[in-house]
Amino acid sequence: MIRDWSNFIAGRTAVITGGGGGVGRAIAIQMARAGAHIWVNDLFADRAETVCREIQAEQGSASPVIADVCDPVEVARMVAETGAVDILVNNAGIPPEGITVKPFVETGPEEWDPLLRLNLAAVLHVTRAYLPFMIDRRWGRVLTIVSDAGRKGERKQVVYGAAKAAAMGFSRGLAAEVGRDGVTVNCIALGTMNHGQLAAALVEQPELEAKLARNYPAGRIGRVDDSAPLAVLLCSDAAEWITGQVYPVDGGYASAL
């Protein structure tokens, strides 16, 4: 974890979608420790407010902003509440009902649509809403959290992977488009994370963790705070010449080379 970056992104303002738990919460806390004011977005007020209190307990600065990022009307309201931000982290990516893990031929549009809306359409809506401010200011950072399911491909997660792959393609194209405006656009791709549905399964089947870890050269599955230091770096001045990239934070599961 970052040890002494207390002013690394000082004076910046960031909005973290889906910041009320998991990876989003970890990124929000680490960015606050690095000096940014954090808008913690979530569908649920209690989750966002809890993270804000955690940040404030460490003398950081944070405010909740409740909105469904899949709804363009709510996104517009969110932007009206937060105003311009310097940093956007598109982290929201798991629907409240979770991800259906089963063969594609056993799925249908009722399962595809929530994944496509949240993992692709919401990224477009929120990025489009905040990007003009960044272009006007000639400085901005857009970071989207994606998955090795889209980078490598995973059985029984093909629609989720397709949406994440599309988000990566969007990010690469946008990076080429706005780079001369001082805005960088990157992705962090995660492997299997000990969170959410999997964390619940591990309580019931603790032996499953060792089985999953065999696929990872680093010897374990992911923790929710693994990507937070890289997120801070990519959203700082130090990363001004890094754009259009997808960085795996996955314990070596799928090489980027």
Largest sheet: 7 strands, parallel
Count of extended strands = 7
For the record, the count of structural domains works out to: 1
CATH class membership: Alpha Beta
**What is the CATH topology assignment?**
Rossmann fold
- The radius of gyration is 17 Å
Shape: globular
Low-confidence stretches: none
Q: What structural class do you assign from the helix and strand content?
A: alpha/beta
- Helix share of residues? 40-55%
Major sheet: arrangement of strands: 3-2-1-4-5-6-7
Arithmetic mean pLDDT:
94
- First CA to last CA: what distance? 25 Å
Question: Layout of SSEs?
Answer:
Layout lengths: L12 E4 L5 H12 L3 E6 L2 H13 L3 E6 L5 H11 L4 E4 L18 H29 L2 E8 H6 L4 H21 L4 E8 L5 H9 L2 H7 L14 H7 L11 E4 L8
Parallel strand pairs: 1-2, 1-4, 2-3, 4-5, 5-6, 6-7
Helix pairs in contact: 1-9, 3-4, 4-6
